[in-house]
Amino acid sequence: MEMKTKIIKINPQAIDFEAIAQAGEILKKGGLVAFPTETVYGLGGDATNPDASHKIYSAKGRPSDNPLIVHITNMEALEKMVAEVPPSAYALAERFWPGPLTMIFRKNEKIPYETTGGMDTVAVRMPSDPIARALIDASTGYVAAPSANTSGRPSPTEAEHVAQDLCGKIDMIIDGGSVPIGLESTIVDLTEDVPMILRPGYITLEMLGEVLDQVKVDPGLIAADSDRKPKAPGMKYRHYAPKADLKVVEGETDAVVQEINRLCTELSAQNKRVGIIATEETKDRYEQGIVISIGARDDEEAIARHLYGILRRFDELGVDAIFSESFATAGMGQAIMNRLLKAAGHQVLEVS
Ligand code: AMP
Ligand code: MG
């Protein structure tokens, strides 16, 4: 069913609270509003309303077993929606909330199974973005918000990306400009004996280790070819993917550049259009293809911020194939490579 999607611009530094109140009313009535967060744009619906959750799944074309993250602005809201808040959660919240960390708890009856994809646990995040916070406070205080993209496409880092995927399917898009981080939140499961990272993100294993005595990484995340299913249902799907065939070329920089140049020559001879994800250091060394620099090699923040936008740009340009350099940065490197490899369906060309 097509509907008219209202797009409004809000300046995060000077929030128009009247416009936010309107958006909050839409959410309270069960409608959908896309909004910026510090990670990526979210597609918001009232997390306490089963109909709103249904609408989110249907607008995104998301498999209904893939649970939604519930966004809140204060600890009282958390205490009202979960069976128990373990001490580790208070410690993590003290250090990382508001911010790009999602924690998993056992749920209570406040949040319906429609929101949690039938699970007895619920994922919760307290975002720092001022527009997101104002919107949550103007609604019921519980906003279910997966990334605001069509399921399978790269997550949106600008309002324009949301419009490409969801115009005509949701009530409103709040345009608050480009997001600062550009990758989805880190997810840590607190329902296990030892807290476990289900999705890497801006908050790294090392950072979590500074607060928790013990923390481990979901084994289902590490080996792409293993039979172990990741514990976060969403991590098993092909994801973040551009339309073109994307391959990651890994190895020593000179060899990588040389191999990508060779592959480009080969494909160009077949009249194929090729995109290249390069870095500031290498962008002038490619002889053909459409070259986009993702940032300097050691600037992990820039690489994270630009990745999804570049994948979408190559969709617009209609390239047939994309070759990307590999980015083994410290810190967020794990999250960046997790998303890039999923987008590539784990196609990696090793060169030496
Ligand atoms: P998105 O908000 O679209 O970035 O996706 C949310 C991610 O959180 C997906 O990978 C979900 O599978 C995961 N998730 C949400 N709730 C839970 C939960 N209760 N247990 C495990 N993973 C969850
Ligand atoms: Mg998503």
List the helices and strands and how they pair.
Blueprint: E1 6-9, H1 17-28, E2 33-35, E3 42-46, H2 50-60, E4 69-71, H3 75-81, H4 87-96, E5 101-106, E6 121-125, H5 130-138, E7 143-144, H6 159-166, E8 172-175, E9 186-189, E10 196-199, H7 205-209, E11 216-217, H8 219-222, E12 245-250, H9 253-269, E13 274-278, E14 290-293, H10 300-317, E15 321-325, H11 333-343, E16 348-350
Parallel strand pairs: 1-8, 2-8, 4-6, 5-9, 10-11, 12-15, 12-16, 13-14, 13-15
Antiparallel strand pairs: 2-3, 3-7, 4-7, 5-6, 9-10
Helix pairs in contact: 1-5, 10-11
The structure holds adenosine monophosphate (AMP) and magnesium ion.
| Largest sheet strand order | 1-8-2-3-7-4-6-5-9-10-11
Helix amount:
25-40%
Report the mean per-residue pLDDT as an integer.
95
Task: Please give the alpha-carbon distance between the first and last residues.
Answer: 52 Å
Radius of gyration: 20 Å
Overall strand count: 16
Sketch the topology as an H/E string, one letter per element: EHEEHEHHEEHEHEEEHEHEHEEHEHE
Largest sheet: 11 strands, mixed
Q: Uncertain spans, ≥5 residues at pLDDT below 50?
A: none
Strand content: 15-25%
- Please state the overall shape, judged from the principal axes of the Cα atoms: globular
Q: Helical region count?
A: 11
Return the structural class: alpha/beta
Present as ligands are: adenosine monophosphate, magnesium ion
Characterization of this structure:
This protein is of the alpha/beta class and 352 residues long. It is built from 11 helices and 16 strands. It has an 11-stranded mixed sheet with strand order 1-8-2-3-7-4-6-5-9-10-11, sandwiched between helices. Strands 14-13-15-12-16 form a 5-stranded parallel sheet, with helices on both faces. Helix 10 packs parallel to helix 11. The longest helix has 18 residues, at 300-317. The protein is globular and about 60 Å long. Bound molecules: adenosine monophosphate (AMP) and magnesium ion. Adenosine monophosphate is lined by residues 66-67, 69, 104, 116, 119, 121-123, 146-147, 184, 187, 198-199, 231-235. Magnesium ion is lined by residues 146-147, 155.
